[in-house]
Every structure is written in structure tokens, then in C-alpha cells.
Amino acid sequence: MNRRASIIVAALMLSCAMAHALEEDQNQPIELSADSADLDEGKGLSIYRGDVDVRQGSMRLRADVLTVYHSDRRPTRMVAEGQPARFEQRTTDGLVKGQSRRLEYEMQNENLQLIGDAVVYQGQDVMRSDRITYDRVRGQVKAGAAAQGKQRVRISIQPDSR
To answer: Which parts of the chain are beta strand (E)?
Structure first.
């Protein structure tokens, strides 16, 4: 690989690394609103439908349908579906937003997977693919084949305006 190509690849990798999530978010209560709720404590399953809005600290998740899996009355996993489902979160470097047809969030490891027409925005920079994985704690992003996707990753990075 020539020097110019190496510099471009390094710049893309550095620019796409997301900032770390706000530490206090994980200690905040989860607040949820929806048009309807179907809760089955025996199965450890709750399904919320219609203009679903979930908030925890600076994180916000919006969807048409949200399925929450729980154990001992504590949420362990959330699956949001929408046209599109959306999330946003404040980080140490500003606001990160994303959207896709399906969002899967694992509470224990704080990983968010965007599946189907996935897009992540940080400032004016944009990453697109069929599948993007966002690790909220480490601020790491994987997309395309690195996230078990099938489409190429498309990235748009705005020049630094110094």
C-alpha cells in the first residue's frame, strides 16, 4: 500500500472511532413510554407498541415496536424495530445518532447492533452499511463484514475546519 493510501486508511480509522459514552448514563433509571404494553413476567418478556420512547440518561431510543427480555424483573436485552428505529446518546465528544430497521441492545455489555439500512452520525460524519455494531462503553464501531454484514461500508468524513 502506498504512503498516501496508508494515511487515508489511518485517518478513516481514527475518525470513525466513537467517543466514550457518558459514565453516568449506565446508573440512570430507564424510562419508557408507548401506546400499548403487553407484559408477561412468567416468560420474562415485555412488548411495547406504538411511538415507543426509551430514555436512560443521555441515551434515547425510539421505535414502532420494542421487545424487552428480562430476568428477575431486570431488563437484559432490547430489540427495537421501526421505519426506522432510532437512537441517540451524548458522548464525551458530542452527540452520536443512529438509525436502522432493527436495533438490538444487550444491557450487560452495552452493545448496540443496527441491522438493515444502518446509519451512524457523529457531528457531520456519517457511516452507512447494512449492519453496524456500536459498543457504547468503549466507543467502538464495526460495520459491514466486520459486523457480520453483507454490504460495503460507506463513510463520509467532513474536513476539519480549523
So the answer is: 30-33, 36-40, 45-56, 59-71, 74-91, 94-106, 111-122, 125-135, 140-143, 154-156
